Amino acid sequence: MLAAARPGSPGGARPRPALTGGFHGEVVRVVDGDTIHVRIGGAVEKVRYIGVNTPEVGHPRRGEEPGGREALALNRRLVGGKAVRLELDVQARDRYGRLLAYVWVGDTMVNAELLRLGYAQVMTVPPNVRHQDLFLRLQRDAREAGRGLWKRA
C-alpha cells in the first residue's frame, strides 16, 4: 500500500488515496500523449504512462514538438472521459509526484496501443520494466511499417 501527502497543497498536506497493485478511475483530462488526469474515488491523480514517451504539446522549455498534437488527439480518442484500470509497476510515483501506470481501457493497454500505432517511443526507466519487451517489439513493428510518427522518419 502507498499513501503520501500531496506536496504544496494549500492548508497543509492532503492525503492521496491508498494505492495497491492497481485500481479503477475515470479520465477527467487528457494533458498530452502520455499524461492524463484520473478521478480515483474523490481525488484526481496526474498519471504518467509507464514505458512510453510522446512528442510534447506545451512543454515550458521545448514548446510543441512535431507530432505532439497527433499523439494528443489519439490519446483523447483512446481514453478521454472513459473508465480506466491503472496497473502499477515497482515504482508508483516519479520525482514530480505523478502516478506511474500502465493504463487500460477494457482489454486495451493504452501505452502499448500508442506504440503499436506509431505515436510514441519506448522510454525505459527502471525499475518499471514489466512490459519492456512487448513495448520494444511494438515500436520496431510500427517503425518498420511506417505507422504514425514513423512516416516522418
State the total count of DSSP E strands: 10
The CATH architecture can be given as: Beta Barrel
What summary fits the major beta sheet? 5 strands, mixed, barrel
Question: What is the CATH C level class, in words?
Answer: Mainly Beta
Strand order of the largest sheet: 3-4-5-8-7
> Radius of gyration in whole Å, from Cα?
15 Å
Q: Which fold name is given in CATH as the topology? A: OB fold (Dihydrolipoamide Acetyltransferase, E2P)
Total of DSSP H or I helical runs spanning 4+ residues = 3
Give the N-to-C terminal Cα separation: 43 Å
Supply the number of structural domains: 1
Low-pLDDT runs of 5+ residues are 1-18
Order of helices and strands: EEEEEEHEEEHEH
Identify the overall geometry. globular
Oligomer kind = single chain
Task: Give the rounded overall mean pLDDT.
Answer: 86
